[in-house]
Amino acid sequence: MNLLSLFRKKGKAEKVVDESVLTDTFLKTINVRLLKCCSKATLDLPILVSRSSTHSPTGREWLLSSGEGYAIRDVALLQAQLLKNLLVNLADEFQISATDEGQFCLSVLLDETQGQVDESGEYVEGSSLLVVVSKAVLKALEGIADESKAEGLVEMKSAYTGLLSRFLMKDLTDFFRDYPRLTSALAKLEGSRGSHLVQVSEGSLKSFLDKTLQKDKPVLFDDLYTRDTSNTFKKEAQ
Questions:
Q1: Residues 219-234: pLDDT tens digits?
Q2: Domain range list for the chain
Q3: What are phi and psi of 65, to 5 degrees?
Q4: Is 74 exposed, middle or buried (CB count within 10 Å of its CB: 0-12, 13-18, 19+)?
């Protein structure tokens, strides 16, 4: 059964994906963009914050620890915001709209965040994207040196960002290698658009303009856009 059919409106034509574009290089590019989305979503979480008298709506501030001028919030209580960040960043990076294929990618993301269960109904360790990311956050927090903590919030954030970026790169790479459904869905979405067929060599447009728009030389529109169709078909036939 084609899972995309679950999200396809009745009578709507299915987009055809040229499977030949789904090369290892193309999939690697998609995976790199996906890793960037997940890393940004995690790094944007307000884990390290300045210490203040501000409390949560329930009247309690759930913290892992606090010190002089800083407080460390519990990532377990920020999972809703993490999930929102993941959805927003993925939709923005891959320009996901209300198409069937785009919404399918978001559905796969939501599924991957929940994890999987085996035949006995037990949770499969390492199958939840939220759990993988949360563990990376905790490892980064544990890795902050006492010297950084003594120097204040700014130094702590710098150390935390560096550690978390490294942990996320490794852990997310391992996760999407073991669970490639989202990478595959995004690759098919990009493959259906044909954007991969448009390749412009770096500097080609600048080179053209430099040659055409020379200094102190008046340039008319006709000089930039010359349409001569007299031998178009002859050239194409050769």
A1: 444 444 444 444 444 4
A2: 3-197, 204-237
A3: -165, 170
A4: middle
